[in-house]
Amino acid sequence: MKLRSVYSSFLLFVLFGVLLYTPHTSVHAQLMNIIPDALDVTISPQNPGADTRVNIDIRNYSTDLDRATITWSLNGKQTQKGIGLTHFEFRTGALGTPSSIDIMVSTLSGKTIRKNITIRPSEIDLVWETGGYTPPFYKGRASYVNQGFVTMVAIPNMVGKNGQKLNPKNLVYKWSVDGEVQGSDSGYGKNSYSFRGSIVPKSTEISVEASSLSDGTQASARIELDPERPEILIYKDDPIYGVLYNKALLGNFTLTEDEATFVAVPYFFSGKTSVVPHLSYAWSMNGADISGVAKKNRVTLRKNDQTEAGSAQVSVSTENSREILQSAGYDFLVSFEAKAREIAF
After folding, report:
1. Which residue, 7, 65, 105, 230, has fewest beta-carbon neighbours within 10 Å?
2. What is the percent of the chain where pLDDT is above 70?
3. DSSP 3-state assignment of 143?
4. In a domain, 25, yes or no
5. Are residues 137 and 43 in the same domain?
6. Residue 146 is part of which domain span?
7. What is the rounded distance in angstroms from the CA atom of residue 90 to the CA atom of residue 53?
8. Within-domain flag for 19
9. How many domains does the chain have?
10. H or E element in which residue 232 lies
11. Based on the domain organization, do 105 and 87 belong to the same domain?
12. Do 295 and 239 belong to one domain?
């Protein structure tokens, strides 16, 4: 009887242990089959803005994703499911509205890989201006020219995880030129960047990334600047009204008065006044140099009493002795009525 009692107690103990152990083993096995965050994810664009199409690709070097069943869900709703679906596309919502993407990969070996991505669209506007000259009443921005001075300003429009718009002064900015980070010009609150164009005539890519100190919200922007050639335009200097900036000479001018003064106005050359430092002017008429009678960017043409009707080709060229890639020229034809045998100066 005593042996039977011991045997019964042993059976109860074994059964109790099995009951306790079996569920634990099952849960443990399920957990072992779930592999969190074992996916390499590529998002393009990396920091999307509002209403932007986003492409997501996943990779895993230890699992054959081409044979796995992959499920994609957007904001809790399953959008696609199938074998080998490693690519997913969607469009972001309004600025600051989060999009939650859930990825579940079921492998042939029975394991499950899960990953969640949250994308919150943010934007940066990049505005720029140059240090180039434009005359009064010019409607527009001075073009970027070779070796020109440019100032970029980043205007972020970013919303944090708390739904509040982030203060641009409290962001960290990282500026890059042609892919090279400008460390000394990057940092906390540095939302502007200035540079001078290369002596090599080529386009320049400027990019900026802004990030929040508190919650990691990021935005980025890039712009490519192609240098243009500076220009010269000719204006008449009226003795009463001054320089007529509202009407440039377009190839031909008829000299009806006894004399007329013409002004060569540089466009986009480095400088803020019409008398741009380091600029030299060369004037000629019918191929003959008349720079000696000109006053830098001005020349006065006069008629003599012995001249028959005719015309003369007047040319002016200018170059910047400091920024050697900045040069321009202009030709115009001056026609005159019969009064003198030549145009005097």
Report:
1. 7
2. 84
3. coil
4. no
5. no
6. 123-225
7. 6
8. no
9. 3
10. strand 231-238
11. yes
12. yes
Q: Does 261 fall in a domain? A: yes
Q: Quick one: CA dihedral 175, 180, 182, 188, positive or negative? A: positive
Structure tokens at 121: 């669209």
Alpha helices in the chain (DSSP H): 2-32
Asked if 206 and 222 touch (Cβ cutoff 8 Å), the reply is yes
CA 132 to each of CA 60, 87, 94, 128: distance values in angstroms, whole numbers, following the listed order: 52, 47, 38, 12
Residues 127 and 114 in one domain: no
* Amino acid of residue 267: Y
Over residues 318-340, the mean pLDDT reads: 85
3-state secondary structure 313-341: EEEEEEEECCCCCCEEEEEEEEEECECEC
pLDDT value of position 163: 84
Quote the CA–CA distance of 165 and 119 in Å, as a whole number.
16
Query: Rounded to an integer, what distance in angstroms lies between the CA atom of residue 163 and that of residue 147?
Result: 43
**Burial label, 283 (beta-carbon count in 10 A; 0-12, 13-18, 19+):** buried
Last residue of one domain, picked from the residues 90, 119, 148: 119
The SS3 of residue 18 is helix
Residue 108: which residues within 8 A CB-CB, separation 6 or more? 64, 67, 68
Q: Examine the fold and report which residue of 119, 143, 167 is the final residue of a domain before the chain moves on.
A: 119
Determine the distance from the C-alpha atom of residue 57 to the mean position of all C-alpha atoms in its chain, rounded to a whole number: 25
The answer to whether position 133 is within a domain reads: yes
What is the rounded CA–CA span in Å between residue 13 and residue 216?
55
**Alpha carbon distance 80, 86 (integer Å):** 11
First to last CA, the chain: 141
Average pLDDT, the chain: 85
Separation CA 88–CA 71 (nearest Å): 10
- Same domain? 273 vs 330: yes
Residues 73 and 127 in one domain: no
- The whole-number pLDDT of residue 311 equals 86
